[in-house]
Specification:
homodimer, 353 residues, 434 Repressor (Amino-terminal Domain), Rossmann fold, 3 domains, 6-stranded parallel sheet, 12 strands, 16% strand, DNA-binding, transcription cis-regulatory region binding (chains A, B)
Chain lengths: 353, 353
DNA sequence: GCTTCGCGCTATAACGTTCTAGAACGATGG
DNA sequence: CCATCGTTCTAGAACGTTATAGCGCGAAGC
């Protein structure tokens, strides 16, 4: 209750607590860890002493002594909003599994190699990489050292675990939805070389094909950002499809903004579908119809896989876990206007597969 | 060059390197730290052995042994885009000062108290808190234990260092700019209880006062998010000021979106100024005139202050460092239309100071 | 030739924790 | 009364690193 004035100088250690409680150091350790081997009365006394001295265990020393550190390293991009959702999920999943997280950010001035290097020094037992841009060969080298789980990007290598959204299926959902509404001229704004972009492009093509609309395919170069979307919108205005699926929500926001500013009503003149269900899409004045990635499930599986590898249950199922997304229908999609439904989409530019 | 197959089992330690190089363990330590006390020939030999074994120093053990950990804890919000910029800056500043950073995120499921607690266990020497919501009393308790630097929020307590943008001055810049353009009916969309909101509100009032426009003050309740901005926009449409300063860029984006959708031209019918110069504002299709916070300078000062405290130069200047912002003029501000410049703004709602 | 250096290196002890043995003790069982 | 056991505790070592002290040796100074 009456916590001692925390001295600015030396940190209070197990030895301090032991001295005050009149017991040995290991016994204090036993009490602090809730390990068996101490009487109820002693526990009480030790806990009181610890409380009074404001004792905090030193995780460095603890991990040094233990064979296991129970520490999972996470590399994330500090700019990418969706990584925020993933980090949140990872914290709760790790918490439940009784693991700790060590965060290492990728910034404009700090590349993935540095981020990983610092985690290696911290003695993490496993690595979770969010949408890494590292070449597969380096990922494989890492995976030879320790369990590596890559999130949100496919990796063709036996040693690397992958948890990702079924990007192709996401575009099937989007296209199916638009076809159900009556659209036939459906364009796609591409993500270029971004993680997942190739899969989404493939899903778009497959879905059109499945509906017998393969010859209507129109792929406009885009990217990850609002600016990329704005640029793509100008091409869309020229080509005038009745609907468009966009690589992600940020890009879709750029598309929306330019379309509306240029007098193209959404969803009246053109329907728009995003990808991610980021907080952007949920904004009431945007109300973007979008493909939602299940961040909670993805992160839970990523942590579960790391834990399984570490606990030796390496016989676990599949190396690559592909999570189905789901469609969130909001206000940017509707049936095409009758007068637009007929005319064929003009082909502007098609990126090669 | 030919790095040994990294054994999945035990980690390679100084002892392994020492054995291979045929020297003692402390000597390897000396070489790895580039400390004086080893001949050039030995250095070469040891480095080669370390390389071959793929040795990585164990930062836990290192920090345990050293009196200093040279570790600075950072608490940041995983959702807030501006925190991303700040974290980037902190990394480079810490790097230059030869300190390491330990990141601890605040998420919907992990409050600031937990974030701080985990950093304390990691044995950080100082804490940098980005826009914390913790009560001043708790900040003061922390500051009694270790140097605490709060960024982007004023704190009235002797023990806590503060580095923040001069929010009031930022609104002076914004209002001056608008007045220069010829505006007299300038509204402000408020940030409520968000960090910095009170200062910006005050700056807005002072600036209007300074230009003899105090009786034109119009403060519309807002918030931090696009949705808050969208709601505020509806009030603005009713009140019809010719210009508006908005709490931050996200909120301003919401304002812009609704204004344009409702047929209010920006900047034709209404000028809009944001705050933060976030990536949002820089987007070419948004091109928001905004008050820029100097993230690089803020983070450099925050780290410098932490280092000064730790090195004992506590005689350092001011406890609170207030960084002047600057105005970035883009495309959302212009002179008011002649027919609008005359009529007085109607008062909709004024939040109490 | 003896001290006095300085240099390159090693031995030993820490840092704060947890693990492994084992000691002290009363209770139980024959 | 002695052996056995379980409980509660302590002594000592260990994790991987770095700080401190000191050793051996050739060079310089008297």
């Amino acid at each position: 209750m009456t916590e001692e004035l925390p001295v600015r100088g030396r940190r209070t250690t197990l030895a301090d607590v032991a001295a005050r409680a009149g017991v040995s150091v290991p016994l204090v350790s036993i009490v602090m860890r809730d390990a068996p081997g101490a009487s109820a009365a002693t526990r009480e006394r030790v806990r009181k002493a610890a409380e009074e001295l404001g004792y905090r265990p030193d995780s460095r020393a603890r991990m040094l002594r233990r064979s296991r550190t129970r520490l999972i390293g996470v590399v994330f991009g500090v700019q990418h909003p969706f990584h925020g959702d993933l980090v949140s999920g990872l914290y709760t999943a790790a918490d439940a599994a009784d693991y700790e997280l060590a965060l290492s950010a990728v910034t404009p001035g700090r590349d993935e190699r540095r981020a990983v290097a610092s985690l290696l020094q911290d003695r993490c037992e496993a690595l979770i990489l969010l949408g890494p841009a590292l070449p597969t060969s380096e990922l494989a080298d890492l995976a030879a050292r320790m369990p590596v789980i890559v999130v949100a990007r496919p990796v063709r290598n036996r040693a690397v675990d992958v948890v990702r959204t079924d990007d192709a299926a996401g575009l099937h959902l989007a296209v199916d939805h638009l076809v159900d509404l009556g659209h036939t001229r459906i364009a796609h704004v591409d993500g270029g070389r971004a993680p997942g972009a190739a899969e989404r492009r493939r899903g778009y093509r497959e879905a059109l094909d499945h509906h017998g609309l393969a010859d209507q395919a129109l792929i406009v170069p885009g990217g990850l950002t609002e600016d990329d979307g704005a640029a793509a919108a100008r091409e869309l205005i020229a080509a005038r499809p009745t609907a468009v699926t966009v690589f992600n929500d940020r890009c879709a926001t750029g598309v929306l903004d330019v379309l509306r500013r240029e007098g193209v009503a959404v969803p009246g003149d053109m329907s728009v579908v995003g990808f991610d269900d980021s907080s952007l899409a949920r904004l009431s004045h945007v109300a973007l119809t979008t493909v939602a990635q299940d961040a909670g499930r993805i992160t839970a599986l990523a942590v579960a896989r790391a834990v399984a590898r570490l606990d030796g249950d390496a016989a676990a199922d599949e190396r690559e876990q592909v999570i189905p997304p789901h469609l969130v229908v909001r206000s940017t999609t509707a049936a095409p206007r009758a007068d637009l439904a007929a005319a064929p989409a003009r082909r502007v530019r098609t990126s090669s597969a």
